[in-house]
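User: Can you model how KG4 sits in this protein?
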Amino acid sequence: MIVLGIESSCDETGVAIVKDEKKILANVVASSLKLHSRHGGVIPEIASRMQLESIAGLFTEAIKTAKIRPEQIDLVAVTTHPGLPGSLMVGIAFAKALALSLGKPILGVNHIYSHVYANVLCHGNIKLPVVALVVSGGHTSLFYIKDFSKIQVLGQTRDDACGEAFDKVAKMMGMGYPGGPLIEKIAKGGNKHKIRFACWGTNAELDFSFSGIKTAVLYYLKDKKSGIKLSKDLAASFQESAVNVLVKKSLLACKRKNVTNLLIGGGVAANSCLRQKFMASAKLEGIDCFFPNINLCMDNAAMIAGFGGCLYKRGARSDFNN
Ligand code: KG4
Ligand code: ZN
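Assistant: Here's the modeled complex, given as structure tokens:
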């Protein structure tokens, strides 16, 4: 089965073609990130305007890269939620028009769950059940997955998402957007034990809270005069605390659910400190830890096409008639 996937939930526009739920034939992405960086965050109107301008060209490019004819597409899968309404609308309208003109079915797909599925694209079928952590700019959630069509939420952030905290801390420190990769880079030469930030903050053992650490960084910056060295230490200390809580709660979730496979996905999963800490800690607990390749951690349409194909095969259908 050949699935064409469309992703337009935030600032990226992606079109991908995936065969048999796993084989990526094409995966093209255009980003309006540069246009947002001087504003310190995504401006929805700029994002959707760029998506409108780029989506048709990306479709043509994907078809060409995959070396298929449009009639060979068996299913159109598109992100329907969650995301910026104006951005989602661009992808959904394009997907509907395409499916209608080709006479093919269309399936709406959850963006967050697709981040987990990116692991299947990279590692093949992973034995279920698993615990999954999605850490992105908009979400920080833990899931229990026995079957990809019945995903159970174990915990989520009560306030800011982890990536959002990276972005806001970077902004407070006078860096650009997105902040995650910039914090990672500057943290490399810093002392991660210099400042102790607490990042537990919720009563529910598998929920997260990142607004407290963000405020702690703000007060720290107000109190101290920040030089180059301090910035490095601050970035390293913040990253250390944020990553530690993700690792501890994810491993706790594995313990609670008695599973030995842990899947991690979303933009923050590209962070090398996070990847190393997860690998090392999981190994000690006898847990196998999986990450997508870096390009599949970020928003992309291959995960939408793959997950869409997987759900369609299990009987999922969408009604786009209204
Ligand atoms: O999954 P994603 O591309 O979009 C959403 O669905 O939100 O994630 C984007 C988020 C941003 O907050 C960005 O700062 C963060 O992922 N991010 C990182 C890194 N690369 C991207 N955070 C920490 N370290 C990184 N290397
Ligand atoms: Zn995402």
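A couple of observations from the model: The domain at 124-293 is CATH 3.30.420.40 (Nucleotidyltransferase; domain 5). The chain has a mean pLDDT of 94.
User: Helpful, thanks.
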